[in-house]
């Protein structure tokens, strides 16, 4: 019986949220935003951290992953959804797997073009330079049953990686990256690298300076309470890192080992 609830949540839950958005939008028929944006990318690229930073501005409302469940009318749902947010700038998170699986693979690029060219959304593309670290981050979050932390970890329990399963997920991540690149062809976007722009606190203010100018809001210095759950040295949280590293050395992902 319990196994039914996730299925209902992914289907009926999305349709219910869609209906509620339409109902609530009736109270805000004339909402206009000076700018609108979408945070687009894969999981574990820093979208939660970035939305936390953006939401500290009184001029910005950054919504959650509104397409993490299926909806019947994606475009109409978005119009209803953004009406209830009253700040100068409205944005939302859209992970690439949601674009591919919830909205349809063939329509993904068309939907992004619709947002940018028809609706005036500014596209902010988040990516990571190291797919091995990104995939390990997902594995470790699932292992710990926690995707985000607000306190620095005193100790990190080590996980043992299922290497064949990890390789499958790593290659699936590469396919998703190629899908993103296909979707982004011919579309203007603001690119953010997790490693260069978000991972270290010292780089975030430089990013926010550029990003706030891009969105047309007043600059300030936000502070995030979110902490990394992984470590710089992978062996500190992966029990069989040496074995995994030896396997990766003979694959197309060997280049990523230079930064591991």
Brief digest:
47% of the residues lie in helices and 12% in strands. With 260 residues, the protein is α/β, with parallel strands linked by helices. Helix 1 (4-25) packs across helix 3 (74-83) and helix 6 packs across helix 7 (163-184).
Descriptive account of the structure:
With 260 residues, this protein is of the alpha/beta class. The protein contains ten helices and five strands. Strands 2-3-1-4-5 form a five-stranded parallel β-sheet, with helices on both faces. Helix 1 packs across helix 3 (74-83). The chain starts with a helix and ends in a 12-residue tail after the last helix. The model has no long low-confidence stretch (mean pLDDT 91).
Task: Label this structure with key terms.
single chain; 260 residues; alpha/beta
Our Rg estimate from Cα atoms comes to: 19 Å
- Poorly predicted spans: none
**How is the largest sheet built, in terms of strand order?**
2-3-1-4-5
The number of helices is: 10
Helix content: 40-55%
Fraction of residues in β-strands? 5-15%
Distance between the termini: 43 Å
**Topology order in helix (H) and strand (E) letters:** HEHEHEHHEHHEHHH
Sheet with the most strands, sense and barrel status: 5 strands, parallel
Shape: globular
Number of strands: 5
Topology of helices and strands:
Layout: H1 4-25, E1 35-41, H2 47-54, E2 60-65, H3 74-83, E3 89-95, H4 96-101, H5 108-118, E4 121-127, H6 131-144, H7 163-184, E5 190-193, H8 194-198, H9 201-215, H10 241-248
Parallel strand pairs: 1-3, 1-4, 2-3, 4-5
Helix pairs in contact: 1-3, 6-7
